[in-house]
Amino acid sequence: MSSLSTPPPSVSVFRCHELLDVITSFQPGLPQDLHVFLALSYPKINLGTPVSQHDMFLVKLSFASVHAAIEPWYLIYGVTRLSKLVACAPQLVDLFFADAVFFGEVAIVTLLLRLVQSTPTPLPLKRDALTVAAMNGQVDMFQHLQQWQYRNVSTNVMTWATHGGHLAMLQYLHEQHATGASAQTMDMAARNGHLHVVQWLGAFRSEGASVRAMDLAAAQGQLRVLEWLHAHRREGCTTLAMDLAARNGHLNVVIWLHEHTQEGCSTGAMNLAAGFGHLKVLKWLHTNRSEGCTKKAIRAAAKHGHLKVVRWLHHVMHLKCTRAVLEFAITGRHWDVVAFVARNLSR
């Protein structure tokens, strides 16, 4: 009876992850648990291009999607499996390293670097690691990488840190006499509403800002930032500020710009507001501004299915329901708009 209840030694071996790892370490090929990562790569970010051309949300989303695949693997295998990864799949080292750097996992980074040191594989992400740490505000990681002789940083490193509002990272870079800042640094801080960063840059850095600071802040509805820039900076803004605020439905910003700046707006303000269905903004602009709109307004509203806006533009702004407007509504499959335009079609 006892012989039936006691499993043979081979079964005990296969049930023990540690023993099985020792046995399979003598086998060539890639372990099954690592195959899933072959389809992934660490987020490719062109660190040489202006930061404004990157959407930080998409950058973070890319890292989050990689992390979502890696984190469950750590929960099952822990970090002891990393030696197998380095030995059997060196092409995956950059992926795991970037994930650890971005999320501030100093212990994992240290282990990977020690494992890589004993192989012909070069240090991972030699060019990008410091900037990846900076863009997510990982000061401890940045310092740790410096201890491993990582030196290369992007010329935009301070702007990357600013994009995420990471003031502690900026302060450390400033203390290190980093040169990776420009007027774009404050512009990006303003765009993303990081008032504390804008104020610090104004006090401790000399790069200043450009008119894009107020333009971009207005576009994103960052009223407190606009107020500070208007009071403490002299770059001003352009008509794009009100145009883009109207586009995104920030009526409070449109009103503030009207009351506190002289740049005004263009016909683009109403045209863009119409395309995005912001009827309250349209009504305010019509009452308080003189720029008006063009036929682009009713076409954009029809294209995106904003029936109330199309009706208002036709009845109040006297924009014609033309065949072009009808075609835009049909293309968007907005049948309620199609019906209205068809009933009011200009002869």
From TrEMBL:
| One Pfam family named in its UniProt record | Ank_4
Q: Which InterPro entries match?
A: Ankyrin_rpt, Ankyrin_rpt-contain_sf, SecEffector_AnkRepeat
Query: Where are the annotated coiled coils located?
Result: none
PANTHER family according to UniProt: ANKYRIN REPEAT-CONTAINING PROTEIN (PTHR46586)
State what protein this is by name: Uncharacterized protein
